[in-house]
Amino acid sequence: MAMLLFAGCDSPRDRAAARVRGSDGEKLRFESARLHTQFFAAQGKEFAPVASALWPECIGKLKPARVGLYKDGLTVALAETDGMESGLHIVPSGVNLHPKDTPTTRYERLAEGIYWYEMKQ
Length: 121
Known about the structure:
Elements: H1 12-20, H2 23-40, E1 47-50, H3 57-60, E2 66-70, E3 73-81, E4 84-90, E5 105-111, E6 114-120
Antiparallel strand pairs: 1-2, 2-3, 3-4, 4-6, 5-6
């Protein structure tokens, strides 16, 4: 599967990358850790959706289609096209995991603990 290439500075990837370069990156990782501890770790599931009413402001600013928790982090879906989903994969603060590519998902590091993902649906 080839990675999607986004042209121009107005793509969801470029907007997200610009946001995570500054203090928003650490804020996103902190909020990811909070959500992970509060809603996911206790449930012991592989995946847990996060209702929009529970999104921290820094995540809501990204205008995601949906947010979900996995064992290795928080996903913030920002775009869906032609059977592909893409967005941010945020490793919680204090966790030293790095997501690994799979046959259906590719990751690109944007900042410490923050990756752009593209996933075939």
